[in-house]
Amino acid sequence: MRKSRVTRLLIGGLITGALVTAGPAVSSAVTPKTGAPGLTRLVLPAPSGPYAVGTVALRLVDHSRPDPWVPAQPYRELMVSAFYPASDAGAYPVAPQMSPAAAKHFDESLGTPVHEGWGIPPGKVPWGATLTHSHANAPVQAGRHPVVLYSPGLGDPRTLGTTLAEDLASRGYVVVTIDHTYDASEVEFPGGRVEPFKVPVDGDILSTLKKLVSVRVADTRFVLDRLPTLPNGLGAALDPGKIGMFGQSAGGFTALQTMHDDPRVAAAADLDGTLGFDQDDGGPGLSPLAEDGLRRPFLLMGSQASDHHTVRSWEALWSNSDGPKLDLHLRGSKHHSYTDMESLVPQLSKIGLPSEAAYEDIGWIDPARAVATERAYLAAFFDRHLRGRDDGLLDGPSPRYPEVSFVR
């Protein structure tokens, strides 16, 4: 969520795209059709760690609260996915990134306010054909693993963070990605039921945004409560004393706010997400998080022109925090460089589909360099603060990653 990402949506009805979405766990091998003549399957970057990756998707129901966006529903339901280091992964099918009903809904909604920012016409891209690098329902590696939660940006489904989630899993983490139902473009539940975006886009914007973050934090704390019940042996394989969280845009805000509110989160990273509720990112809309500061480790990683000297809410958080803190600037990046869009948009450009608006949100950094850099610094941050491992990458500029500046 750059400076006015959420308010742009709520005021003008604009969300800049979501290419992947949620669905139930995959139980058999899937070979999606390309769907569009002449266009091959889009490819996500392979994870870089030593472990094969497994995945499972789950529906979670919180009966303690009604749904905040659909009051007639007496419970809150979520979809989450767990990515984890797997054993015997080759015996299990590779999971698709987008489930069929969600892919259909996404394609049909192209050109509507939810997806109009990319300028990609319906019927031109096989959204359901992209595969992950994760094996559905594969057994988890033996041992206890640190846990990292992921929250996506407003209007984006959880699987828009697949590239970073799979990479952390391949390095030995269990990563749980969360769909915040009704503020994602679409969420598919078991049986093919799809729930679309329903956050109101008119009325009191300040109150809506405060509610949005509050709902997201409540969702995340509920998921934390349910971690011990994860199936396939995952619940028993988690280390409850080593929990971190990260997110992009509004998800970054959610990650830091959850750590502020819940002592179970030991470290959190915000990827280009502002921490204010109003269009000016400050003033009366400054979040209590930014005003209070944090005592536990946090990472801010911003796109072009985003750091704690230029973003007012980041400046407030920085000055009010007395714990370990780090602000990294990735030169040439833009808002969606921290999502799978960084890799997918250039592939679409080969057939002439992306508009200027698409490139406006991924910048001019080389996509492979962007992905490698984000993965390296995110892993180094969680390794240091969850595992006690330190390769020195966070100490200062590295010749291996000249695109990164340390903002002091």
TrEMBL record:
GO terms for molecular function: 1-alkyl-2-acetylglycerophosphocholine esterase activity. PANTHER family: PLATELET-ACTIVATING FACTOR ACETYLHYDROLASE. Gene3D superfamilies: alpha/beta hydrolase. InterPro entries: AB_hydrolase_fold. The keyword Lipid metabolism applies. Keywords: Hydrolase, Lipid degradation, Lipid metabolism, Signal. Residues 1-22 form the signal peptide. Pfam families: PAF-AH_p_II. One of its GO terms (biological process) is lipid catabolic process. This is Platelet-activating factor acetylhydrolase isoform II.
